[in-house]
Amino acid sequence: MKNGMIECSVCHSKLVSPGSITVSRAYDRHRSKVSSKQRALNILLVVGDCILVGLQPILVYMSKVDGKFNFSPVSVNFLTEASKVLFAIIMLVIQARRQKVGEKPLLSISTILQAARNNALLAVPALLYAINNYLKFIMQLYFNPATVKMLSNLKVLVIAVLLKIIMRRRFSIIQWEALALLLIGISVNQMRSLPEGTTALGFPVATGAYIYTLIFVTVPSLASVFNEYALKSQYDTSIYLQNLFLYGYGAAFNFLAILGTAIYKGPSSFDILQGHSKATMLLIFNNAAQGILSSFFFKYADTILKKYSSTVATIFTGIASAALFGHTLTVNFILGISIVFISMHQFFSPLSKVKEEQENGKVELMNVQSNLRSKDDSFVDMTAGANEEASHRVGSDDRQPLLPR
To answer: pLDDT tens, 98-152?
Structure first.
């Protein structure tokens, strides 16, 4: 037994363990066939994620004027979701043209309606993402870009707990220790990082910042886990069709937020292009690419891998913010990054999975031994039956004549 799969000792076929909670049968079949292409895809996802996630807080910082945003953050989120919807539609059209004869058409009304019913759960992460995208701008008012990225790494621990509760995913003791090291690395970097003598929302800056940090960590963690569950539970559905629903829900939620802002502040705030610059256009493109890449992470890879790859972007963010904006790379930052990388290596090291694999190996060995015993018992029964039949044949013939010869 390995990764929730049981391998037959005779034909070596893999079956899902009855005791494990499966997301979907299609994903289980995919998980049992990890190829070199899948590993190459994971590497490409990590590299792309590091670049996009590293650039995101820098672009947000460049979008500020005198420490404030001249545009509505909700308008950026709406334009980002609209861009992703457009991308999903284009990719769906391309995928539909490449379909083989006899396959169910992707763009038929029946296919879209059925997929919409099956993927209704995607509305939950879409709403949570809409809230989280607004919080990203709020966090920039309290922390520099490198610190924002370090704070976002706290999501890894929350996600691990949610994966254990919602998706029944198991982690070894070494992996939990790696997550604890991650928290230590973040704490080391956070020492004396808050500005002093300023206030926000009537609270001291530390209080307001930590309240936003708590929400900033919890909301996207829930969104990531629900997103992974929703995408993998309908694994046979095209990812571009799933993204169409996810981004469509996100665009709808952000548009409702724009309407609410227009009602509260007046019709002038309804102009979604007001206050935008080249930096905000780059930010919209970056956020859209990052969201599209994340969907591939959640469906074909893992949420933990997605969040750990974001920690690698912290180095790029810290160095770039120091070069562009004059932020100082402190000793705490360097030590924190070092601990984070040790944590990442420990979490994904094969040694962290040895104990679990050994326990699963024992279960598999017990199953094999029980199968062998059952086979031996059946063989003994067959032998006993054959001996009984032979002894019966050796004895006197019941059909011999009763009269003496």
So the answer is: 888 888 888 889 999 999 999 999 999 999 988 887 777 777 666 666 566 666 6
Confidence of residue 361 (pLDDT cuts 50, 70, 90): very low
Query: Cβ neighbours of residue 201 under 8 Å, at least 6 residues apart?
Result: 208
DSSP 31-65: HT---HHHHHHHHHHHHHHHHHHHHHHHHHHHTEE
Contacts of 295 by beta carbon, 8 Å cutoff, 6+ apart: 227, 231, 239, 242, 243, 246
Helices (H), 167-204: 173-190
Q: Tell me the one-letter amino acid at 65.
A: V
Q: How many residues are given for the chain?
A: 405
The DSSP element (H or E) to which 69 belongs, if any, is strand 68-69
Q: How far apart are CA 184 and CA 167, in angstroms?
A: 26
Distance in angstroms (rounded) separating the CA atoms of residues 305 and 169: 14
pLDDT at 347 over 60: yes
Give the 3-state secondary structure of residue 353: helix
Report yes or no: 332 and 189 within 8 Å, Cβ to Cβ.
yes
The model's pLDDT over 246-299, given as tens digits with 9 standing for 90+, comes to: 999 999 998 998 888 888 877 776 777 887 888 889 989 998 999 999 999 999
| Beta bridge partner(s), residue 7 | 14
First to last CA, the chain: 68
Q: Give CA separation, 53 vs 117, 265, 269, in Å.
A: 32, 32, 29
How many CB atoms lie under 10 A from the CB of residue 374?
Answer: 10
Cα(304)–Cα(49) distance, rounded to whole angstroms? 13
DSSP bridge partners of 6: 15
Among residues 219, 268, 246, 232, which one has the least CA distance to residue 72? 268
